[in-house]
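Lab notebook: predicted structure, single chain.

Context: the supervisor wants predicted structures on file for every construct in the current expression panel, including those that have not yet been purified. This is the next one on the list. No modifications to the sequence; it matches the entry in the shared construct table.
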Amino acid sequence: MSDVFADGSTFLLRQGRLLERRLADTSLGGAPPSAVVDALRGYQNEDGGFGHGLEPDTRCPASLPIYVEFALQALVAARTIDATLVSRATDWLAGVAAEADAGGAVPLASPVIGSYPRAAHWTEWTFKPGLNPTAGLVGLLYKLGVDHPFVTNGALYCWEALSSDELPGDAHTLSEVLVFLDNTPERERADEIVGAVGEALTQANFFRLDADDDGYGLSPLNIAPSIESRWRALFSAEQIEAHLDRMQRDQQPDGGWPISWEPPSELAALEWRGVETLRSLRTLASYGRLDLGS
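Prediction complete. Output recorded below exactly as produced.
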């Protein structure tokens, strides 16, 4: 077992949430995915949405679309689905979309977050329905094989938004678009636009194409986190290798990976570091940079 993996695993045991520990057991250790579902149930509310700070930057107990996206990402990472859990969450999303009345789109959050601790960047802009997070939610639900009116209506919204003359200029939104394009059944339509999306990404705000850039943002490894990723082709082999080198260098003496923004509390920072540590371990393992041992 490599020191990178051993030290990262120890960090998760010491500091990570139960969800990330369960995900690590499943995605890196071959444990049954049912434990991931069990961990997610603790975050699901009576209304079917997810809450309770599942996305660590917002410490809100109420259901938010960003929390549902986090839950769906966990299920995809664990390669599992719980039909009841996902059906309730998708019904909730449909209700949010109907209330927003924005052609099938949902916002990241709602004004309820103002009553709870949150990172400084979680402000009014997160209340506006848009491709972020609608494209990501629809793409993840496609990936999980979910057939629901929210998916149908959300996909129509995404295609209409992507048919405009100007693509989004923010890397986070474009990454959500790529999740949608990766999983939509309309492959020909997706292939026609992905080149333009990839080009827009390299010029987008909050995108770090240079592996030596120490600023906040997404890197090619956020877009193509595994060697099997369709979007690996958007970057050169040299760019991918440089970011893998950077990822390995960024592991901290305590075994975990750092974050480059300010969460609302010390606990939230540790939770985010657990998320980033698991992401880094999974990416390094996928690209053959990590020996998981026997």
